[in-house]
Write a structure and sequence with these properties.
Elements: H1 2-12, E1 25-29, H2 33-44, E2 48-52, H3 111-124, E3 131-132, E4 135-143, E5 146-153, E6 158-164, E7 166-169, E8 191-194, E9 208-212, H4 216-225, E10 231-235, E11 250-253, E12 256-259, E13 263-266, E14 271-273, E15 276-279, E16 297-299, E17 302-304, E18 306-307, E19 311-312, E20 318-320, H5 329-345, H6 353-369, H7 384-395, H8 402-417, E21 425-429, E22 435-439
Parallel strand pairs: 1-2, 1-7, 2-3, 7-20, 8-15, 9-10, 9-15, 10-11
Antiparallel strand pairs: 4-5, 5-6, 12-13, 13-14, 16-17, 18-19, 21-22
Helix pairs in contact: 2-5, 5-7
The chain binds flavin-adenine dinucleotide (FAD) and 2-acetamido-2-deoxy-beta-D-glucopyranose (NAG) (5 copies).
Length: about 450
């Protein structure tokens, strides 16, 4: 079949093209930033869509929920937000297209301020009435030329099946914990959670806490736990130079060799007694509702093959939003939503499947030959600005200005330099290419009432 499509397209020299009609129907799954943005642009183009959202709320992971485990309808709590979270990107890089944040928004807002912004976004574009809340997608399957989407009304369990021409998957990927196996972990007597279930530092008062992982969650959570803990033992294998002047009771350790009943032996042979563990090893891509016939290969670190980190090459009427990391995520999601809308509207045509497949393979080979781990397949990183340029050149959407990428790089540099102070800066956008950074607030003194050496 694939060979047939390839030959067919090659002979006719055409790409994939779709004609939008009043009968064109789009299914959006998820009402986080990705789903809300897509709804906004489809609505503006008067393209018919159904947005299903399993919770009662918009904003996805940006809504804090003190509960862990399952919600009132038995659906696993989606959000990974914790109570004291402030963004790690400055507000300019998290603003959605043409919808400025209120003037008095701090440079690094709390989750609450940003969540309120997303709610006002949904209100402003009159999206609430377009959302089927408490409906969870349970199966997405291709059937001839249509998508059959089955979804469940979560309070009653009633299932509905609807047919669509396009499916836009916007369920995020910061919800399903990735937890490696640690030798001896079943012996350990203390309390162990994943950062997905971390809410407040209170349970760690005067405890010896092991934090595993040095990604954004591991670093951020370790800083708030050290304020209350007796000792923070931070295990990771990052080669990054952390210049942050950690206090004496926050110590770095290499990887875990094994747990026993009372603590952990690390790969350097040292032992630490531990009360509690917070596993901050990140999240995995997880789309349990996608049928095999969608043609996607989903691993914990990749969803392939996709064109522009978005279009399912085997079924180009399906898009999976927000697969990337190391980017101004809200800007990138907004750009994807505009690209998807332009595609559905017919403003541009995708290359043939064969061309998209070759492009994807090229990217895969580049990562391989550079000796980079294949877990980097969806990293934008240094290529973020090129990504925005490519989306715009192809689809005609307005480009995300280069200044956003530049701000993110300096912010990340400041973060690597000093985790305590990087949020003291303010970033003012001057034009599409330039910004000014200034010191907005001075560092507040940090006190550690419970800190101890042993
Ligand atoms: C702790 C934490 C801190 C972060 N900090 C930052 C930051 O400072 N800056 C930044 O830019 N990004 C940050 N992020 C990344 C964040 O994920 C993105 O900013 C953004 O929220 C992603 O939006 P999304 O729409 O892709 O997914 P989500 O926000 O996860 O939304 C997905 C939605 O889909 C719904 N859903 C899931 N499955 C189904 C289903 N089967 N059927 C129906 N609905 C479903 C969910 O209920 C949810 O509402 C952070 C993430 C976490 C976890
Ligand atoms: C859809 O119908 C509306 C109203 O009948 C019409 O104005 C619009 O042009 C139609 N759109 C398309 C894409 O056919
Ligand atoms: C969308 O399509 C459905 C099913 O064809 C139809 O009932 C509904 O009225 C349409 N909505 C809009 C806004 O066109
Ligand atoms: C765990 O291992 C350490 C280091 O070998 C040891 O000192 C400690 O007693 C062990 N704990 C138990 C309960 O065996
Ligand atoms: C799925 O992707 C992974 C990672 O790229 C790869 O190792 C694996 O072989 C792929 N599986 C299939 C069935 O294509
Ligand atoms: C900034 O970029 C946008 C989009 O590419 C463009 O429309 C606008 O004219 C640019 N502004 C300036 C001052 O160059």
């Amino acid at each position: 079949m694939q060979l047939f499509i390839f030959v067919f397209c090659a002979i006719l020299q055409i790409g994939y093209s779709f004609v939008v009609t009043n009968a064109t129907r789009v299914c959006i799954i998820g009402a986080g930033i990705g789903g809300l943005s897509t709804a906004r642009y489809l609505k503006a183009e008067k393209i018919n869509f159904t947005l299903i959202e399993s919770t009662k709320y918009v904003g996805g992971t940006w809504r804090y929920d003190e509960r862990v485990g399952k919600d009132e309808n038995g659906i696993p709590i989606h959000t990974s937000m914790y109570k004291n979270l402030r963004t790690n990107l400055p507000k300019a890089t998290m603003e959605l297209h043409g919808f400025p944040m209120p003037e008095d928004t701090p440079t690094f807002p709390s989750w609450e301020v940003y969540y309120n912004y997303l709610k006002s976004y949904a209100e402003h574009f009159d999206l609430y009435k377009c959302i089927k809340f408490e409906h969870q997608a349970i199966s997405v399957k291709k059937f001839e030329n249509e998508w059959k989407v089955k979804y469940k009304h979560t309070p009653t369990g009633k299932e509905v099946e609807e047919k669509f021409d396009y499916v836009v998957v916007a369920t995020g990927h910061h919800s399903k914990p990735y937890v490696p196996n640690f030798p001896g972990e079943s012996l350990f007597k203390g309390n162990v959670i994943h950062s997905h279930d971390y809410r407040v530092p209170d349970p760690y008062k005067c405890k010896k806490v092991l934090i595993i992982g040095s990604g954004p969650s591991g670093m951020d959570i370790s800083l708030e736990v050290e304020l209350v803990a007796k000792r923070v033992i931070h295990s990771h294998h990052s080669k990054e130079d952390f210049n942050t002047p950690f206090p004496k009771h926050h110590i770095m350790k290499p990887d875990i060799k094994e747990f026993n009943e009372t603590g952990v032996i690390f790969t350097d042979g040292t032992y630490e007694e531990i009360d509690d563990v917070i596993i901050c090893t990140g999240y995995k891509y997880d789309y349990p509702f996608l049928d095999k016939n969608c043609g996607l290969n989903i691993t914990r670190y990749s969803v392939t093959p996709v064109y522009r980190h978005l279009v399912n090459i085997n079924q180009p009427t399906m898009m999976v939003m927000g697969l990337f990391f190391h980017a101004c995520l809200p800007k990138a999601l907004d750009a994807q939503a505009r690209y998807a809308t332009a595609l559905i509207k017919g403003d541009f045509t995708l290359p043939s499947q064969d061309v998209m497949m070759r492009e994807w393979q090229k990217k895969y080979d580049e990562i391989r030959s550079a000796g980079r781990p294949i877990t980097h397949i969806h990293e934008l990183g240094d290529e973020e600005d090129e990504y925005y340029a490519a989306l715009s050149e192809e689809s005609g959407i307005e480009k995300v200005p280069t200044v956003m990428f530049k701000i993110r790089l300096l912010d990340m540099e400041a973060m690597t330099d000093n985790l305590y102070t990087f949020r003291n800066f303010a970033y003012t956008v001057k034009d599409n290419d330039t910004f000014v950074r200034s010191v907005e607030v001075e560092e507040a003194p940090r006190i550690f009432p419970c800190a101890g050496d042993s």
